[in-house]
Each structure stands twice: as C-alpha cells, then as structure tokens.
C-alpha cells in the first residue's frame, strides 16, 4: 500500500481494491484475537479438530477483508492461491475448510462467551488507536442503519437465540419527512438495526450495538456513549452529533451530565407554542422558539420587528447561555434602543438558564455557525455505514440466524478497525523520489501491537 504524506492519517480512499499479501499480513497481525481463539479452543475441547480455530477465524477475516461476494468465493480463492493459504496456516489445498464448516463456525462465534470476546477484540483495537491518536473521539457522531438478515431455520434455534438474549430479525420501516412533516421517502427492510458511534474527523467506529428494528435511536445512545468512553482516554469525548431521532429530553440530560455537548437537530411539535416568553426578570419582549433560538421584539415601530439576539457564549460554571442586544452587537439602528438598552455600553444582556429546558438550550445553541459546522460532521457516520455495507458486506442479507448474524457483524467491525490500524501504521511516501517515512503514530501503533502479542516460551516443545 502506498499513501502520500499529504493524505490524512486514516486515508480511506487509499485502500487497495485487491490488497497485497504484505497488507493482508499486517492486517492480520493488527488483530489481538488471542483471547477469542483461546475461548474457541476451550469450547471445542477434545472434539473434532479437522480444521483449527485459527484457520476458520482467518478464513472468515479474509472473506471480509478481500471483499468476496460469498464465502464460497473465498474458499475457491484459498484453494488456488498457496501464498494466501500460508498467511492463515493452511498447509495444503485439501486443508481448506468447506462452506458447512464455516457456517458452523459462524454460529459458534455468535454464542457466549465467544461473542463477548469478539466485542473485546474490537474494544482493544479502539483503545489502541485512542491512545496514539490524540484527537480520536473528540468530536463524535451517531446514527443507526437497517441491516438485512434472516431468521434461523428452526424454532429450536430461534428459542436458543432468544434465551441467549439476541434480538430476532423483524420488519423495519423508516420514514423521511420534510420540515413540514410530510413523508418524502419510505425505506423498508427485514432484519436488524446497527447503531454506531464514530469519530467525525477520522471516520473510525468507536462503539456499536445491534438491536431489532423496533429499538429507537434515542434509547441506545447511553450504551453507545458508555462503550466509547471505555475505549478512549478519560474526558476525550467533547461533542456528539445526531439527527432528530435523538432529540429527546432524557438524551440531552444524559449528555449534559456526562459533560458532552449535544449537537442534535430539533424536532418541532405542533402541539407546542411556536414562541414562549421567558418570564421572571427577563423583559417581556425577549422570547424563544422551539429550536431554542432567542429573539427580541422591537415594539416601538408600528409593525413589530423580531431580531435574533447575538449569542455571546456558554457560561459553563453558571449553566447559562449569554445573549446581547443584536443592534448594539452588529451595529444597526433599532427604534427600541433607548427603551431596551438605556445607558448600557453593550446593550441589554440576557442570561438563559439551560435548566429551563436542556433540549431547547444545549451548550452550543442551534442558531450558531459552530453548531452548523459540527452538525455537518454527522455525515461521517453515514460514510462509515456505506463502507461497512459496500466494502465488507455487512448488509448482504444472506446470513441466517441471530447467532451467525452477530458473529458476522462483530467480525466486520473488527476488520474495519484492522484497516484503520493498517492505514495509520503504513509508511507514507514523501518527496518526488518516493522516499517512505514512518510517522510517530505509526511507530507507536507497531510498538503496541508487538507488546500485545503473546509471549512464546522458547524452551517449550513445538
């Protein structure tokens, strides 16, 4: 893989369509799967060992990483490519597993405790990147996407999956509405929901969760945030961007308590008043709308004129948002200047207590350029969803049963972070002669990978 030094740290557009053997080797080395493999070996016990768990796990990873359209295509590739077989310790062509072996392995991967170990592999890789990339997770975005899936073929299997606590595939429907509440597009699918929390700048997943199609986005935010917090250094997450599906009072209160600034587009409710007066000591001509935008009315003119007040800043210690007279701040004439401002140099100042309604008054008001800039970053999670679906087949709809589905999704998420690690540790091409340079972050990642590798006892028999 060749990446120019001018490219970002996670240069997703530089991924190879057909990864080289060197890239695949580094990819596999970046996955800390020792605990998972040991768990699978212990579960197998003294049972049949025609194919080792290392071979089955490696085959699954290659099928995803090499973007094969099916498991059969990957197995055929392994049979005709001896160099590829060596990478996952397959001795010969007749030692390549068949499709039934891989199907049973995927089912086993979705059982406990292996599923927890699989999530642990993802978490270790996310923590590793969080340690060496200083701004990873600072600005985050979340969203859910529908994934196609199929139920297990027997009632017995479905009952066992339900007993394990795995959600079953159900019919999902998502409606897209315009600002007037009119439905503009409807998407329907049968399967599951994947909830993601990603870094906005680097487009790296920090947490994920799988539910049935009925689970609301707002219900899963606390769990996603808690997982991401464990995968990152303390107090790393500063903002979280989400669409209207997360505009819920409980979500805003949770994020406020966690010290995370909510960048969430608001929903308008027809039952609510379009404008409200603050009351108390705040002048009666100061109002706010459903989005939390603060306005003042010029009541001296014959026709009432409404102006958005000038946002000055967030006073965290006071828990207030500070606003000033827009006429004085922006320098235009207002007939109500004398009535409102008197002899004040900066004009009328209003402090809005966030506790009035955290949903209306987040730490970064919606009617600001900062909010718009951070909210634009929400598209990062959509690009991550696109790669998971188009590159690595997380939504192919051919996986039967909740266990297999959870095992498959977990493996795809591991491959996603493995490619992120590969991009971050790849030497960059510098200068006209193509001199390769290893960045400090790449060096730090390689040292962490080497430190995580299990120690081999040289005196032990081979």
Strand content: 15-25%
How many beta strands in the DSSP annotation? 16
Unreliable sequence segments: 458-462
Largest sheet: 6 strands, mixed
Helix fraction?
25-40%
Task: Report the span from N to C terminus.
Answer: 34 Å
The coarse overall form would be: elongated
Q: What gyration radius follows from the Cα positions, in whole Å? A: 27 Å
Tell me, rounded to a whole number, the average pLDDT.
91
Oligomer: single chain
Q: Domain count, please report it.
A: 3
The class by helix and strand makeup works out as alpha+beta
Quickly count the helices. 16
Keywords:
elongated, six-stranded mixed β-sheet, four-stranded antiparallel β-sheet, alpha+beta, Nucleotidyltransferase, domain 5, 462 residues, 3 domains, 16 strands
Which SSEs are present, and which pair or pack?
Layout lengths: L2 E2 L16 H9 L4 H11 L8 H13 L5 H10 L1 H6 L11 H11 L4 H19 L6 E10 L6 H10 L5 E8 L5 E17 L5 E7 L5 H14 L8 E4 L6 H10 L2 E4 L10 E3 L8 E4 L4 E5 L6 E4 L1 E6 L4 E5 L1 H5 L6 H5 L7 E5 L15 H8 L2 H12 L11 H24 L2 E3 L4 E3 L2 H13 L10
Parallel strand pairs: 1-15, 2-6, 6-7
Antiparallel strand pairs: 2-4, 3-4, 4-5, 8-9, 9-10, 10-11, 12-13, 13-14, 15-16
Helix pairs in contact: 1-15, 2-7, 3-4, 3-6, 3-15, 6-15, 7-15, 9-10
């Amino acid at each position: 893989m060749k990446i120019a030094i001018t490219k970002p740290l996670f240069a997703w557009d530089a991924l190879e369509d057909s990864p080289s053997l060197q890239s695949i080797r580094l990819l596999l080395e970046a996955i800390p799967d020792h605990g998972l493999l040991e768990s699978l070996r212990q579960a197998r016990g003294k049972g049949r060992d025609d194919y080792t768990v290392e071979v089955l796990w490696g085959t699954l990873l290659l099928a995803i990483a090499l973007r094969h359209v099916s498991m059969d295509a990957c197995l055929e590739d392994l049979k005709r490519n001896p160099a590829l077989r060596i990478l996952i310790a397959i001795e010969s062509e007749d030692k390549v597993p068949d499709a039934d072996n891989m199907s049973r392995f995927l089912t086993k991967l979705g059982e406990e405790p292996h599923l927890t170990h699989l999530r642990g592999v993802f978490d270790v890789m996310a923590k590793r990147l969080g340690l060496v990339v200083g701004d990873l997770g600072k600005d985050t975005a979340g969203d859910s996407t529908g994934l196609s899936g199929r139920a297990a073929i027997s009632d017995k299997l479905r009952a066992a999956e339900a007993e394990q606590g795995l959600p079953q595939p159900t019919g999902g429907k998502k409606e897209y509405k315009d600002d007037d509440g009119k439905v503009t597009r409807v998407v329907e699918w049968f399967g599951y929901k994947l909830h993601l929390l990603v870094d906005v700048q680097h487009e790296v997943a920090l947490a994920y969760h799988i539910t049935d199609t009925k689970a609301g986005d707002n219900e899963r935010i606390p769990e996603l945030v808690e997982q991401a917090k464990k995968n990152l250094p303390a107090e790393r997450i500063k903002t979280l961007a989400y669409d209207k599906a997360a505009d819920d009072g409980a979500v805003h209160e949770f994020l406020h308590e966690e010290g995370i600034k909510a960048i969430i587009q608001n929903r308008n409710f027809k039952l609510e008043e379009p404008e409200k007066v603050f009351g108390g000591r705040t002048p009666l001509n100061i109002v706010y709308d459903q989005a939390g935008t603060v306005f003042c009315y010029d009541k001296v003119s014959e026709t009432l004129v409404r102006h958005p007040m000038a946002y000055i800043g967030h006073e965290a210690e006071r828990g207030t948002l500070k606003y000033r007279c827009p006429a004085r701040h922006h320098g235009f004439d207002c007939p109500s200047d004398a009535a409102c401002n008197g002899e004040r140099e900066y004009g009328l100042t209003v402090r809005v207590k966030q506790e009035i309604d955290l949903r209306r008054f987040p730490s970064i008001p919606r009617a600001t350029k900062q909010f718009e800039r951070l909210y634009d970053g929400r598209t990062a999670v959509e690009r991550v969803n696109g790669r998971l679906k188009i590159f690595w087949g997380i939504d192919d709809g051919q996986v039967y049963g909740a266990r297999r589905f959870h095992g498959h999704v977990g493996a795809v998420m591991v491959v996603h972070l493995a490619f992120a690690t590969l991009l971050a540790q790849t030497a960059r091409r510098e200068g006209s002669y193509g001199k390769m340079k290893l960045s400090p972050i790449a060096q730090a990642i390689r040292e962490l990978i080497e430190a995580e590798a299990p120690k081999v006892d040289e005196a032990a028999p081979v």
